[in-house]
Every structure is written in structure tokens, then in C-alpha cells.
């Protein structure tokens, strides 16, 4: 069984989408391993998105992710990273299919309500970063 890191971003938290997002992961067959509400520091956010530091949208991304509480989760299941990314949908909600979380609940890439790890290495790194 693999584990992946998932986070409801400040827009999803503020819009009251945590419960519906948790339900989708449970309905899919994932098991919730750990979860907590957090307010990220700038340092934590920059560390999490370190690989995107060179992007033009990096400062905007960090401003957004520290703008309010987030809901951090660890989910366990078969092919957890791939299955979670399928539930989440494409990065740009304009490309995300209906039935995916971003396809159903988001419209703008800069506020796409949810994060999911993209590899086994990033899942391990992110679980450590958020849950020690
Ligand atoms: P994902 O979150 O699907 O793994 P990513 O890791 O490439 O996508 O990017 C991280 C986040 O950065 C993404 O969820 C939203 C933001 N982002 C990506 N591309 C962007 C863009 N062109 N403009 C603004 N924000 C962007
Ligand atoms: Mg990513």
C-alpha cells in the first residue's frame, strides 16, 4: 500500500469543501491515515513548492498558499499517488474533466483548491514536511 500527501488549499478550505473532498477519497477506497488544519508559514510554503521557484507565478503561489488555513491529509491505498491525481484532475481546471475535484469545484489555475503529490519521492518528502 502506498501513501500520498493531499492538501485542501486555502480557497477550498474557505469555501467549505473539506468534507466533500474527504468523502471522494473515502468513496474511492482510500484510507485516511492522518489529517490536520494548518496555517503555513512562508518558509514552509516555499519549501513545499521549492521545485517551482523559477516559475513566474511562484510568488503569487506562495502568497496564495499562506493566505488562510489549509487542510493537510495523508491517504493510503493501492497506487495512491496515481489514483489521487486522477481524483484531483488536471492542474488547470479548464482542462480538468467533470467528475474530478478540480473539474467540479475550480475554475482558475491559480486557485485550484487541492494539491496531491506527483511521485513516490515527493509524497515521502511532503508527508515528512507536513507531519514530521
Ligand atoms: P499540480 O498542483 O497539478 O501538481 P504543479 O505542481 O505543476 O501542478 O503546480 C503547482 C501549483 O502551482 C498548481 O496547483 C497551481 C500553480 N500553478 C501551476 N501553473 C500555474 C500557472 N500557469 N499560473 C498560476 N499558477 C500556476
Ligand atoms: Mg505538483
TrEMBL record:
Q: Name one GO biological process term.
A: UTP biosynthetic process
Q: Keyword tRNA-binding on this protein?
A: no
The EC number of this protein is 2.7.4.6
Output the Gene Ontology cellular-component terms: cytoplasm
* The keyword Metal-binding appears for this protein: yes
Principal location? cytoplasm
Q: Where in the cell is it found?
A: Cytoplasm
What cofactors are annotated for this protein?
A: Mg(2+)
Q: Where is the Nucleoside diphosphate kinase-like domain positioned along the sequence?
A: 1-132
Q: Which InterPro entries does this one have?
A: NDK-like_dom, NDK-like_dom_sf, Nucleoside_diP_kinase, Nucleoside_diP_kinase_AS
* Record Pfam families: NDK (PF00334)
Q: Which molecular function GO terms apply here? A: ATP binding; metal ion binding; nucleoside diphosphate kinase activity
Its keywords, alphabetically, are: ATP-binding, Cytoplasm, Kinase, Magnesium, Metal-binding, Nucleotide metabolism, Nucleotide-binding, Phosphoprotein, Transferase
Q: Which residues bind ATP?
A: 9, 57, 85, 91, 102, 112
Top-level EC class: transferase
Family annotation (CDD domains): NDPk_I
Q: Which residues form the active site?
A: 115 (pros-phosphohistidine intermediate)
Question: What family does this belong to?
Answer: Belongs to the NDK family.
Role according to the record: (Microbial infection) Catalyzes the phosphorylation of dZDP to dZTP, when the bacterium is infected by a phage that produces the substrate for the synthesis of dZTP (2- amino-2'-deoxyadenosine 5'-triphosphate), which is then used by the phage as a DNA polymerase substrate. Major role in the synthesis of nucleoside triphosphates other than ATP. The ATP gamma phosphate is transferred to the NDP beta phosphate via a ping-pong mechanism, using a phosphorylated active-site intermediate.
Q: What is this protein called?
A: Nucleoside diphosphate kinase
Organism name = Paenibacillus endophyticus
Record gene name: ndk
